UniProtKB/TrEMBL annotation:
The keyword Metal-binding does not apply. Residues 1-59 form the HTH lysR-type domain. The keyword Translocase does not apply. GO terms for molecular function: DNA binding; DNA-binding transcription factor activity. It comes from the Bacteria. InterPro entries: ArgP, LTTR, LysR_HTH_N, LysR_subst-bd, WH-like_DNA-bd_sf, WH_DNA-bd_sf. Keywords: DNA-binding, Transcription, Transcription regulation. This is Transcriptional regulator, ArgP family protein. Belongs to the LysR transcriptional regulatory family.
Length: 295
């Protein structure tokens, strides 16, 4: 099956930009020309590839095609690099990672190999419960996720367990939780979560105190360092990775609200089974490095 590169380029631009108009701007074409190329590709494959919504998104078959195109591009780039006389062309990898991995072990463990292998990163930061979707829809070629089961055509390797502690500053504790984390106090004490998708705090409060979402005030502060700083400076309390606490917290400023009772989250590395040699090498580095650091 021979796919017209102009047609596949138009399809990718529509999905990546979210509209036919923006795809036309990116490719310096008109919107009707983009639409014509996408329809030609759909006719050739006998399937609808784009849901004409705002933003435009890929159908299930479109997601499969997007995965194929990204893998093919990665393999092509890798081969061209290996065959080049000067093998210093960078390789761009699109990965979906959770903020806590980026904010703790990922760069210290992998910076040397990323520099040595001339890898350029295009990272999407997402909650670990939702990174899997980005791989599934073809928007990433690898991800760190809590999902243990690989999707078809992919592999899943256990990286280890990220341990979290529920903590607060001493100042916050004195103001909001003088008698500890009771159900009554938790109704008014502000929580600090990463995003609305972050369920670490909400799951804990539901299971331990029977408090559902909306039963307590909540800040939303994305980013591992920013989230921790919001807690450190007394805006609220929340779950912080043990690795981040060891590296940054002073014993005099942070209090564990549930000592001896950490929350542990298993993390898995997902990527396609068919990979370029450099991506396969990077995957092995991610797996081995994480296993040395995580529980």
């Amino acid at each position: 099956m021979n796919l017209n590169p102009k047609h596949t380029e138009a399809f990718r631009a529509v999905i990546e930009t979210g509209s036919f108009e923006q795809a036309a701007t990116r490719l310096h074409l008109t919107s009707p020309a983009i639409s014509q190329r996408v329809r030609a590709l759909e006719s050739q494959l006998g399937n609808a590839l784009v849901v004409r919504s705002r933003p435009a998104r890929a159908t299930r078959m479109g997601q499969r095609l997007l995965q194929y195109l990204k893998r093919a591009k990665l393999l092509e780039t890798d081969l061209a690099t290996e065959m080049a006389v000067e093998q210093d062309a960078p390789l761009t990898l699109v990965l979906a990672l959770n903020a806590d991995s980026i904010g703790t072990w990922f760069f210290p463990a992998l910076s040397d190999v990323l520099i040595r292998e001339r890898v350029l990163l295009d990272l999407t930061v997402e909650d670990q419960d939702h990174t899997y979707t980005l791989l599934e829809t073809g928007l990433a070629i690898g991800c760190i996720s809590t999902e243990p089961k690989p999707m078809r055509g992919c592999s899943a390797e256990l990286l280890g367990v990220m341990r979290y502690w529920l903590v607060a500053s001493k100042k916050f504790l004195a103001q909001w939780l003088p008698d500890g984390l009771t159900r009554k106090a938790a109704r008014s004490a502000p929580v600090v979560a990463y995003t609305h998708k972050d369920t670490l705090q909400s799951s804990f409060l539901l299971s331990k105190l029977g408090l559902p979402d909306g039963a307590y005030p909540c800040h939303y502060v994305p980013g591992a360092a920013s989230h921790f700083n919001a807690i450190r400076y007394g805006l609220g309390y929340g779950m912080v990775p043990e690795l981040l606490l060891k590296a940054n917290a002073k014993p005099s400023e942070i209090v564990m609200l549930t000592p001896g009772k950490p929350v542990e989250v298993a993390l898995y590395w997902h990527t396609w089974k068919v990979q370029s040699p450099r991506m396969e090498h990077l995957s092995q580095q991610i797996i081995s490095s994480a296993r040395k650091i995580l529980k």
